[in-house]
Amino acid sequence: MIEVRKLSVAYGAGRRQVLALSEVDLEVGEGEFVAVVGPSGCGKSTLLYVLDGLVPPTVGAVKIGGEEVRGIPRDVALILQDAGLLPWKTVQQNAALALRIQGRKGDVRGVLKQLGLAGFERRFPGELSEGMRRRVGIARALALHPTVLLMDEPMANLDSLTRERIQNLILELWQRLKFTAVLVTHDIEEAVFLGQRVFVFTPRPGKIAEVVDNPDMGQVDYRDSEAFRARVHHLREVLVGSAA
Fold first, then answer.
1. How confident is the model over 66-86, as a mean pLDDT?
2. What is the distance between the alpha carbons of residues 114 and 242, in angstroms, rounded to a whole number?
3. Alpha-carbon distance 154 to 82, whole Å?
4. β-strand pairing of 180-184 with 18-28
5. DSSP one-letter code for 77
6. What is the largest CA-CA distance in the chain?
7. Residue 51 CA to chain centroid, in angstroms?
8. Radius of gyration of the chain (CA)
9. Distance between CA atoms of 175 and 109, rounded to whole angstroms?
10. What is 2-75+148-159+176-243's CATH superfamily?
11. How far is CA 78 from the centre of its chain?
12. Do 67 and 231 contact (CB within 8 A), yes or no?
């Protein structure tokens, strides 16, 4: 589904040039859920922006569904850290925004209902809790019926209980809708809870230090299991080692 070959991305030019990613190779299978972790500034978000067609590769190639990414793919949706809601638009208008930008028709009320937002369609972002605002951001992405869902720290800065609820929601949606998912996160436990595989990036310029398999992801009560704790511990050791 997703193929990244010898990807390098540099920002700026000359002495001011900053190399964000260096010769990254990875594959994500159709319907797979992977997580990406690494220190701040290692190029994790840049990887998502390349997959979404917002940033072109400096070197290398990226393919989704066998086709090279050129511009923003219609079947790919990106969820940003702050949900990116427009404060002067209602919940329903915000959820339908991506459809309108792409010139597509669609009714978002069904998606809002699935996410527990029925009855809030005419509310504005300022009238919602932070957790509800994040769900509107998820609704806007799902309204596109994407085959690939990219997530850039969608649970950042939430309280622990709200964070777990949204993690559970994303897991349930993935299990039901079967999209391919790439999650960027700083949270090790979140990466282990949601990633079938976890790509660990080195400090900038980002390279893949290790790929950690996580075959128990999605099992009932996984958070409370010894296997979960062992993988969190291992992932923490890999991160510390890659930064040394």
1. 85
2. 40
3. 7
4. unpaired
5. E
6. 54
7. 11
8. 18
9. 21
10. P-loop containing nucleotide triphosphate hydrolases (3.40.50.300)
11. 7
12. no
Separation CA 145–CA 136 (nearest Å): 15
**How do the domains of the chain map onto residue ranges?**
2-75+148-159+176-243
Residue with the two structure tokens 């890999």: 238
- Band the pLDDT of 200: cuts 50, 70, 90: very high
* Beta pairing partners, 67: 64
Residue 244's pLDDT is 62
Q: Could you tell me what percent of the chain has a pLDDT over 90?
A: 71
Query: What's the pLDDT score for residue 99?
Result: 87
Residue 129 is encoded by which pair of tokens? Answer: 């809790």
Structure tokens at 229: 């704790």
pLDDT in tens, 93-131: 999 998 888 888 888 888 898 888 999 999 999 999 988
Measure the CA–CA gap between 79 and 21, rounded to whole angstroms.
21
Question: In this structure, what token pair is assigned to residue 85?
Answer: 């809601």
Q: Within 13 A of 3's CA, how many CA atoms are on the CB side?
A: 10
Judging by DSSP bridges, how do beta strands 59-64 and 67-68 pair with one another?
antiparallel
Backbone φ and ψ of 36, nearest 5°:
-125, 125
Which ranges in the chain belong to alpha helices (H)?
44-51, 91-95, 97-101, 109-114, 130-142, 160-177, 188-194, 226-243
- Report the relative pairing of strands 208-213 and 197-201 from DSSP bridges: antiparallel
Residue type, 6: K
Planar angle of CA 143, 149, 152, nearest 5 degrees: 110
Q: Would you say the pTM of this structure is higher than 0.90?
A: yes
